[in-house]
């Protein structure tokens, strides 16, 4: 049952290191290993078993160990003999149900790593500070409300993780942790910090997110090594001047606080200009940004959004209200991600195009009417979210953004797209619904990689008046006719294909026939949940018959269907892709049995059945019908 693996041999406290004994996940319910069996063992792993009790002599049996892991058991307490593990350097007791630690634990004078995550500890002994060799301490996910007064004596502690507790205060001598580099106290109840907090010169990363801090005072003014500071979800309303003078600061999150008006000091960015790469100020009440923001030339991520969900823009109770970006904003040439959604931006600085590294841009739900001509210089832009603005016209050179993959322009006032739009050949997602388009943009047929096109209608207004679909102005019948016509041309051009015309059949390109049959309100939408199975019987008869019906009796085919013979060559290998406004394979040759490989026994009918359409990667065709619309379809 036991498995062993050799470790590299070396010296540990003047003796030779032994082996690792791994008994994890072996359903152990009791500890029954003799001291003799562990004579050459230095590391024992008993993770994820069912141990609930350790014998009183465990401290003597395990004296040779330097590392012991009991993670994921059911231990409620530890025997007092645990304090005899004098050689122990690493101890993991995470994911048990410990409510306290034995006083004898202070005897582990060699302990450097102690992991107690996910227990039910309510307090630590006052003698806890005697573990002076401790370098890493993990106390996350317990029920601690305070730390012992001796805690500041852990002068060699480098990493302290105590997130997800109920800490309301820190000991006054907390500043004694002079070697502390990483501190995580997120998700606690801290309202203040001791003044000695400013005496932690080695701090590099601090996470105080989700507490109740209202001010920072001068806590960090001497933390010149600080690189990452996370203050998300507190109650900060102002920021001290020193926050802009930390020379090594790389990341700072001030998200979801109560910062109002112009919270950043004017000096912000002057000292951090060479280092700051991440700044998150979303979910505050910010109205103005300092001009020195443009000095942060190494900034990589900037989030200024409101993060208020779907609340009405004029009625939200929190969220930023930024009306303009600094004139020197274009200096942020290394910025890769900018989020400034749900603000009051009505224009962008003319040098906005100088953000040449930008890859992700979210300016949704602002008041933008136009984009600067320099916008086309954002050659690295991959995702551009401009939904819910007042944009009436895109720059003529907008198509120069040929790296775009995702473009959202829904809920604007666009009446047409620029001709240069044809150059957006890498575009995969395009949202244009709820605009003022009066015809289907011709440029869409060049977007061959398009996978999602949304030209759907606006929803019904709150007042009860139905806001008409913008798509109602588009001749969708013509679109459908072109799709069928393109498919027919492809079939006829295939080598070896021959057409058999049946008497009385009209061409599928007969737009008038389609107009009479379908009406002018059929729309395309790429939605996997919508499929032709939702059509009524008349619609299904118009679009497709079953494969068996088509082969057994050609007179059952609808007049708008063109029947052809399949080519002898393998259809899937020889397929000439049909491109109808960016959709590949609008029609694809089906087979009788969908479970058979493509091309084994092809059907000869041109139009695929509902069953096949639902299984093909093509846009579904949805029809808005009115009662009685199809009554005269057979006349």
From TrEMBL:
User: Region Disordered: which residues?
Assistant: 487-512, 530-571
Q: Where is the composition biased (Basic and acidic residues)?
A: 547-556
Keywords attached to this Swiss-Prot or TrEMBL record, sorted alphabetically, are: Leucine-rich repeat, Repeat
Q: Which Gene3D superfamilies match?
A: Ribonuclease Inhibitor
Q: Which GO terms describe its cellular component?
A: cytoplasm
PROSITE patterns in the cross-refs? LRR
Q: Which superkingdom, per the lineage?
A: Eukaryota
* Bias-annotated ranges (Acidic residues): 530-542
Ranges of Low complexity compositional bias?
499-512
Instruction: Please note every region of biased composition (Polar residues).
Output: 487-496
The protein's matches in Pfam families, at most eight in alphabetical order, are given as: LRR_1, LRR_8
Q: Does the keyword Repeat apply?
A: yes
What is the protein's given name?
Leucine-rich repeat protein SHOC-2-like isoform X2
Identify the taxonomic lineage of the organism of origin.
Eukaryota, Metazoa, Echinodermata, Eleutherozoa, Asterozoa
């Amino acid at each position: 049952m036991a498995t062993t693996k050799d470790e590299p041999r070396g010296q540990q406290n003047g003796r030779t290191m032994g082996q690792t004994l791994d008994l994890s996940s072996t359903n152990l319910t009791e500890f029954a290993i003799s001291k003799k069996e562990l004579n050459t063992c230095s590391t024992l792993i008993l993770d994820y078993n069912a141990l609930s009790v350790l014998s009183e002599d465990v401290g003597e049996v395990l004296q040779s160990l330097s590392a012991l892991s009991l993670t994921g058991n059911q231990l409620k307490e530890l025997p007092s003999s645990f304090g005899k593990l004098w050689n122990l350097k690493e101890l993991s007791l995470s994911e048990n149900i410990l409510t306290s630690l034995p006083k004898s634990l202070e005897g582990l004078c060699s302990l450097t790593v102690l992991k107690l995550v996910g227990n039910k500890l309510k307090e630590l002994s006052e003698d806890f500070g005697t573990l002076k060799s401790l370098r890493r301490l993990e106390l996350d996910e317990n029920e601690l409300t305070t730390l012992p007064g001796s805690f500041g004596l852990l002068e060699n502690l480098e990493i302290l993780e105590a997130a997800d507790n109920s800490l309301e205060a820190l000991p006054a001598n907390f500043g004694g942790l002079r070697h502390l580099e990483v501190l995580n106290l997120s998700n606690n109840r801290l309202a203040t910090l001791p003044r000695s907090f400013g005496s932690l010169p080695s701090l590099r990363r601090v996470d105080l997110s989700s507490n109740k801090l209202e001010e920072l005072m001068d806590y960090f003014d001497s933390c010149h090594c600080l690189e990452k500071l996370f203050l998300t979800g507190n109650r900060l309303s102002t920021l001290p001047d020193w926050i802009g003078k930390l020379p090594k600061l790389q990341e700072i999150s001030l998200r979801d606080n109560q910062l109002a008006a112009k919270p950043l000091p004017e000096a912000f960015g002057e000292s951090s200009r060479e280092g700051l790469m991440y700044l998150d100020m979303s979910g505050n009440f910010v109205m103005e940004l300092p001009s020195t923001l443009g000095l942060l030339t190494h900034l990589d991520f900037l989030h200024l959004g409101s993060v208020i969900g779907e609340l009405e823009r004029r009625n939200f109770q929190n969220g930023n209200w930024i009306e303009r970006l600094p004139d020197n904003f274009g200096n942020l040439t290394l910025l890769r991600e900018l989020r400034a959604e749900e603000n009051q931006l009505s224009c962008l600085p003319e040098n906005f195009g100088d953000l040449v590294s930008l890859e992700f841009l979210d300016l949704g739900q602002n008041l933008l009417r136009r984009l600067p001509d320099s916008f086309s210089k954002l050659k690295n832009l991959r995702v551009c979210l401009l939904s819910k603005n007042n944009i009436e016209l895109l720059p003529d050179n907008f198509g120069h953004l040929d790296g775009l993959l995702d473009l959202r322009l829904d809920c604007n006032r666009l009446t047409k797209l620029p001709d240069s739009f044809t150059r957006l050949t890498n575009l995969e997602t395009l949202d244009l619904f709820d605009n003022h388009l009066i015809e289907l943009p011709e440029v869409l047929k060049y977007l061959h990689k398009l996978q999602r096109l949304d030209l759907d209608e606006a929803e019904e207004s709150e007042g009860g008046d139905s806001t008409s679909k913008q798509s109602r102005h588009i001749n969708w019948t013509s679109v459908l006719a072109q799709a069928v016509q393109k498919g027919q041309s492809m079939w006829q051009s295939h080598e070896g294909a021959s057409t058999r015309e049946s008497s009385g059949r009209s061409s599928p390109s007969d737009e008038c026939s389609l107009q009479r049959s379908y009406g002018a309100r059929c729309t395309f939408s790429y939605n996997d949940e919508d499929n032709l199975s939702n059509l009524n019987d008349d619609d299904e008869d118009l679009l497709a018959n079953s494969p068996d019906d088509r082969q057994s009796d050609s007179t059952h085919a609808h007049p708008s269907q063109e029947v052809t013979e399949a080519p002898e060559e393998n259809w899937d290998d020889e397929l000439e892709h049909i491109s109808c406004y960016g959709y590949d394979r609008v029609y694809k040759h089906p087979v009788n049995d969908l479970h058979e490989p493509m091309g084994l026994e092809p059907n000869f009918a041109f139009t695929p059945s509902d069953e096949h359409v639902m299984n093909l990667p093509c846009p579904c065709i949805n029809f808005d019908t009115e009662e009685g619309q199809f009554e005269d379809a057979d006349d």
